[in-house]
Design a protein that fits this description.
The structure holds two protein chains of two kinds.
Chain A lengths: L8 H6 L14 E7 L5 E7 L1 H4 L5 E4 H7 L16 E2 L5 E7 L2 H10 L1 E6 L6 H4 L14 E9 L2 H7 L2 E9 L11 E7 L2 E6 L4 H12 L6 E5 L15 H11 L3 E4 L2 H7 L6 E10 L2 E14 L8 H7 L10 E9 L13 H18 L4 H8 L18 H18 L4 E10 L7 E7 L4 E5 L8 H14 L6 E5 L16 H24 L6 E5 L2 E6 L2 E4 H4 L2 H6 L2 E7 L11 E3 L9 E11 L6 E11 L6 H20 L30 E5 L22 H13 L10 H7 L4
Parallel strand pairs in A: 1-12, 10-11, 14-15, 18-19, 26-27
Antiparallel strand pairs in A: 1-5, 2-4, 2-6, 3-5, 7-15, 7-24, 8-13, 9-10, 9-12, 13-14, 16-25, 17-18, 17-23, 20-21, 21-22, 25-26
Helix pairs in contact in A: 11-12, 11-19, 14-15, 18-19
Chain B lengths: L4 E3 L4 H9 L6 E4 L5 H7 L6 E4 L8 E4 L2 E5 L4 H5 L4 H4 L1 H8 L4 H4 L4 H7 L6 H7 L3 E6 L2 E6 H4 E3 L2 E2 L6 E7 L5 E6 L10 E8 L4 E7 L6 E2 L1 H7 L6 H14 L10 H18 L6
Parallel strand pairs in B: 1-3, 2-3
Antiparallel strand pairs in B: 4-5, 5-10, 6-7, 6-10, 8-9, 11-12, 12-13, 13-14
The chains are: A alpha+beta, B alpha+beta.
């Protein structure tokens, strides 16, 4: 792919691109949030007086919200400011805006807050020391309970040849997008407007209007270029505060988080404890029982997707005749759980893969062969009864196995090679719409998403258009519109952009080509081509320029237009297996098998990645260079989850490593050479058979690294991340 | 960050005068600024005046026979790139390379690292093992202190009000090594580090450990256990045992005490093995 194929590259390389944090509007005020001083307690009194006494300062708290939204009622479950109960440290309890950033900070500090503090609840195992032996029935801390199963698990475990039981722990990891959350809001003549760094302008509009109680038609969300999202910018977050401040100030207000607050307030993956049990007879898995205790922090009512979602990954992509899965979402005094690239899937893969490797070793089986034998194949049913669609994971695992065998033969002492798989479902059930406009010179895709970095918007949907029309990529232009003027789209998340927005684009183009075919008098849709620099509609030997084919009305508009939409149909699970809560079906089956080679220092526990290989089923690959980059980036991110990343809360609810010094993301020297392979022939629901590739690359990484560490030195680490100290403990060095 | 006056005097007398003109609590000194700026930005310190050393003629590096003198404002990257350093004092070369990143070392200085005196400094333990000294200038004139006496504790030094670090003097080039342990091997803070150096003058080892509060320190018991130029495996084991069991190692949020005590054994053994003594 030539450099020009990434149309946003010149602006990004030269620094001229305007990210959310770059937004600067004349006359704007600077906003700041007033943090709760305790992690848990009752808010007795907020005195905004000292802040308001500062020159120009506007200050608001819960008491002001109703008047600012003209008496309308927002979602009572999700007030912008807690009316009484504080549930996490630094929770926004008031907000200020001031003519300068320094004054805004001073004003936030000047607000007087009186609270009755209570002991914070931060540790799952301290809260429920008898879990899983005892069921949890604690309405104060239970946010959700999900349970599903098939068959008589007790009986199967009683009669099985061998049973393996293990406990695993996974850590809280943060998205660490380079750009913090940032937005600029303005409210003029009853029109609420916010420009923001978001993965979903329409999602942010829905969220913010629901939180504030204002109609969606009164709120316009305009996306800024996004400096990385990774799930952290999917829902409204700062927007409601900025909008309220702008209303109060009567002028635009910018609100952005500093990086420490990114960590303190971040909605991200929180810690979990898992009990895994597997029963085996004659080398076959005959029963599984999986129990999950998932920290959801200050859970957002009605938005507890976390547990049902997490637990869907915990049986792995393996055939399992008899099983029981049960998960509890537990409220603690931490910020809300939120999506972090493949929410909980990398953690689940680490647990499932490590556990099944342990099962295989205990029965004397080769772990990879054992897994391969149980892997879903097309036509199988998932444990929850959904038929498996075309699924390249068995082929990917075969590729990984061959590479691992070769690397293991070549590996010196102290090195180890590990293999693990992960799976994912593309979220194309979340729909999207697009409009295309064809002029004599170019094809424009009019849509609602901003590029978040992966290239799925600026390259992905443009490649779909180029491939369908036959036009050169350079003739395709992706245009962005705000939420008032763009066709609806669900957002850039869940590996759905190329799949759903790309399909919507494809539908729009197909309608356009059909119309052109008719105008040519041809029996089918036209293709597009370039003749003397102009776009022509072509069918067989018939070719006419666009200027010859468009109607006077279209000519007046300067373009021919067509619209398309795609709302993917998800599969269905067998609901009779669900005993409590909500489980999710797949729309597509994507998967990857990874191979990691590590070197482990037997005296210090340090792990170094030596090389890495990834085999992915991404369906039909739309843009090989972007796809490769996406896999490399996901692996780099996964190395952090595997080895170093861990947000640590103290007992008082304080995040002890809020910042990039002690929350350690990988840096370039930690990223090994990476081989990327795509297994072909397993078409998905996206355009031309594409499947998504946003999440899958991160999913198998912690599992593959852990497997390699075990291969190198025999350390079976059951807790993420595999820091040198944890590995050292497992090596019995301490 | 509250506003402050930034001054950049051109001579040491002017710099000292600037410091004396302010209440000690209201003035800060900046060299590279890679550490100080965090405190300014977070509001942990709120000086009215910041005295920058960038115009002072202290960006120097001089070899005089076996002695190396490094001006306090020399960026670490320039020290690292000195063609003699890697060969003559390999431990200091390794310690300098352990600091931050290349970009940061273009900005950070040796004087700043000493003056800020972080418990996990990668440079202080090596300077201790090299018997380095600091040359200070202040209102009462000049004085020279050993690094051991200069560094008092976490973020605490013997620097008096109005005093500045002019240079650091390393009396002799020594075979030496610096080894560290971190959660992330690069761009991280060392949670255990061992610096060793062998003095050709008295044929004795120097051993310093660092990475835990309150400050990097020499550990003479380990030095004695190592004996002369070619310690045997038993000597190294005895020295490591002394460090692991009796050095005042403590836990903090970056590592437990028991892990640090375990780490010191391989780090010392590897550091000794990595030290190439000419005639050995």
């Amino acid at each position: 792919m030539s450099a020009s194929a990434r149309p946003d590259a010149p602006a990004k390389l030269s620094g001229s691109v305007v990210y959310g944090t770059d937004l600067d509007v004349p006359g704007m005020f600077w906003g700041a949030l007033v943090p709760a001083p305790v992690a848990r307690g009752r808010l007795r009194r907020i005195d905004l007086g000292p802040a308001r006494a500062l020159p120009g300062v506007v200050a608001i708290s819960a008491a002001d919200v109703a008047a600012l939204v003209d008496g309308r009622a927002g979602d009572a479950e999700r007030p912008p400011f807690p009316p009484e109960q504080i549930t996490y440290l630094h929770q926004p309890i008031a907000a200020v805006a001031a003519p300068s950033p320094g004054l805004a900070r001073a004003a936030a500090r000047a607000v007087r807050v009186e609270v009755d503090g209570l002991p914070a609840v931060t540790d799952l195992e301290e809260l429920f020391p008898e879990w899983p032996e005892r069921a949890i029935d604690d309405p104060d801390h239970l946010a959700a309970h999900v349970r599903a199963g098939r068959g008589d698990v007790e009986a199967v475990f009683r009669t099985a040849e061998s049973v393996v039981r293990e406990t695993y722990r996974t850590a809280s990891v943060h998205q660490v997008a380079l750009e913090p959350h940032a937005c600029v809001a303005d409210v003029t003549d009853g029109l609420w407007h916010v420009r923001t760094s978001t993965q979903s302008p329409f999602g942010a509009r829905e969220d913010a209007s629901s939180i504030l109680g204002i109609p969606e038609s009164s709120l316009v969300v305009e996306g800024a270029w996004v400096g990385g999202g990774f799930g952290g910018k999917g829902a409204a977050f700062l927007e409601p505060y900025a909008l309220l401040l702008a209303r109060a100030a009567g002028r635009p207000v910018r609100l952005a988080l500093g990086y420490e607050d990114e960590f303190r307030l971040g909605r991200t993956t929180l810690p979990a404890v898992l009990r895994m049990e597997t029963a085996v007879t004659d080398g076959e898995i005959v029963g599984r029982r999986v129990r999950l205790l998932l920290d959801v922090g200050t859970s957002l009512p009605g938005r507890d997707f976390a547990t049902g979602y997490a637990i869907g990954f915990l049986l792995g992509p393996y055939r399992t005749p008899t099983f029981e899965v049960e998960g509890y979402a537990v409220r603690t005094n931490k910020p809300p759980f939120g999506p972090h690239r493949a929410p909980f899937a990398p953690q689940a893969a680490f647990v499932v893969e490590s556990h099944l490797e342990e099962v295989a070793r205990r029965i004397g089986a080769d772990p990879v062969a054992f897994k391969a034998r149980h892997l879903w194949k097309e036509g199988d049913r998932t444990p929850l009864g959904q038929p498996v669609l075309p699924f390249g994971l068995p082929s990917a695992l075969e590729g990984a196995r061959a590479t691992a065998e070769r690397w293991r033969r070549e590996a010196p002492s102290g090195h180890g090679v590990g293999v693990a798989v992960g799976f994912w479902s593309t979220s194309t059930g979340a729909g999207g719409e697009a409009r295309v406009e064809l002029t004599p010179a170019e094809l424009r895709i009019i849509q609602g998403e901003r590029e978040i970095g992966s290239g799925s918007v600026v390259v992905g949907i443009a490649r779909v258009a180029a491939r369908r029309t036959g036009l050169p990529f350079e003739r395709i232009r992706v245009e962005y519109r705000d939420s008032a003027r763009a066709p609806f789209d669900s957002g850039v998340f869940g590996s759905r952009t190329v799949g759903a927005l790309g399909r919507a684009t494809d539908e729009a183009i197909t309608a356009l080509l059909r119309s052109l075919g008719e105008r040519l008098g041809a029996p089918g849709p036209a293709e597009l081509g370039i003749v003397d620099g102009q776009i022509y509609a072509i069918h067989g030997r018939t070719r006419r320029s666009i200027a010859e084919l468009w109607t006077p009305a279209e000519e007046a508009q300067g373009a021919m237009a067509a619209e398309g939409k795609h709302y993917g149909k998800g599969g269905a699970i067998d609901e009779s297996l669900v005993r409590d809560g909500q489980f999710y079906a797949f729309t597509d089956f994507t998967g990857a098998a990874h191979v990691a080679e590590v070197e482990v220092d037997r005296e210090t526990g340090s792990v170094r990645l030596v090389r890495y290989a990834a085999f992915h089923d991404a369906g039909v690959v739309i843009d090989p260079a972007s796809a490769r980059a996406q896999v490399e980036g996901g692996i780099a991110m996964g190395i952090g989850t595997a080895l170093t990343e861990e947000a640590i809360w103290a007992d008082d609810g304080r995040l002890t490593n809020a910042g990039l010094v002690d929350y350690r993301i990988p840096t370039l020297p930690e990223i090994p050479p990476i081989e990327v392979h795509f297994v072909e022939g397993f078409a998905g629901a996206g355009p031309f058979g594409a499947k998504g590739l946003g999440e899958p690359p991160i999913i198998p990484v912690p599992a593959a690294v852990a497997s390699a560490v075990r291969d190198a030195v025999g350390a079976h680490v059951t807790e993420l991340p595999l820091t040198p100290e944890r590995v050292a403990r497992e090596l019995k060095l301490l | 960050m509250p506003a402050f006056d930034l001054v950049a005097p051109g001579t040491s007398d002017e710099a000292i005068a600037e410091l004396r003109a302010s209440d000690p609590g209201e003035v800060a000194v900046v060299a590279g600024g890679t550490d100080l700026l965090f405190d300014l930005d977070d509001g942990r310190i709120t000086p009215r005046k910041v005295v920058s050393l960038r115009r002072l003629p202290w960006r120097t590096l001089d070899w005089n026979g076996p002695t190396l003198t490094v001006g306090s404002t020399l960026p670490l990257r320039e020290l690292e790139n000195d063609p003699e350093l890697r060969r003559r004092i390999p431990g200091l070369y390794a310690a300098v390379r352990a600091v931050g990143s290349v970009a940061l070392r273009h900005q950070a200085t040796l004087g700043g690292n000493l003056g800020r005196s972080a418990p996990a400094s990668d440079l202080v333990p090596m300077l201790l093992a090299l018997d380095a000294e600091v040359d200070l200038v202040g209102p009462k004139g000049e004085r020279r202190l050993s690094v051991d006496r200069f560094v008092i504790g976490s973020r605490r030094t013997a620097l008096a009000a109005g005093e500045l670090i002019r240079s650091v003097r390393i009396p002799e080039a020594r075979p030496s090594a610096y080894l560290l342990q971190r959660v992330r091997p690069f761009h991280d803070i060392s949670h255990m580090a061992v610096a060793v150096a062998f003095s050709p003058t008295d044929a004795r080892w120097r051993v310093a450990v660092a990475g835990f509060p309150p400050r990097p320190l020499r550990f003479p018991e380990a030095e004695e256990a190592l004996g002369g130029s070619t310690p045997g495996a038993a000597d190294i084991a005895r020295a490591a045992e002394a460090l692991a069991t009796r050095a005042p190692i403590v836990a903090d949020k970056r590592a437990s005490e028991e892990y640090r005590r375990q780490l010191v054994r391989p780090l010392l053994a590897r550091a000794i093995a990595a030290t190439r003594i000419g005639d050995r």
